[in-house]
Amino acid sequence: MAEWIYFIHAPRENFAATMTEEERAVWGVHFERFHRLMAEGVMILVGPTLGPVNTGIAVFEAPDEDAARKIMDDDPVIAGGFARGELRPFKVSLLRGRD
Question: Dihedral of the CA atoms 51, 58, 88, 14 (nearest 10)?
């Protein structure tokens, strides 16, 4: 299984502090989906960068680029136009608790 990373680029600076109710609702569904994908063993690591530029990252496993792109494109914040996704191949070289 190959490893991938996608960056979740918020639509504006200070996004976390300025979210509308609609944005907050969609980002809630986005986070619930990450919980499900984590439980299914797809996600390895998920989280946002902090500060004025809020870029999220999702490190995950998928068999190929098409499957990885589908995982990213099906993210509710990307599918709904609330954020822009950027997919790249990734290699987990060191991870605590993982050989």
Answer: -20
Give the domain range for residue 16: 2-90
Mean pLDDT across 46-54? 92
Which residue is it, tokens 């996704």? 85
**Is residue 33 classed exposed, middle or buried when 0-12, 13-18 and 19+ CB atoms within 10 A define those classes?**
middle
Q: Per residue in 26-44, pLDDT tens? A: 999 999 999 999 999 999 9
Neighbours of 24 (CB within 10 A): 10
Q: Write down the pLDDT at residue 97.
A: 83
Structural domain count, the chain: 1
* Dist CA 86 CA 74 (whole Å): 13
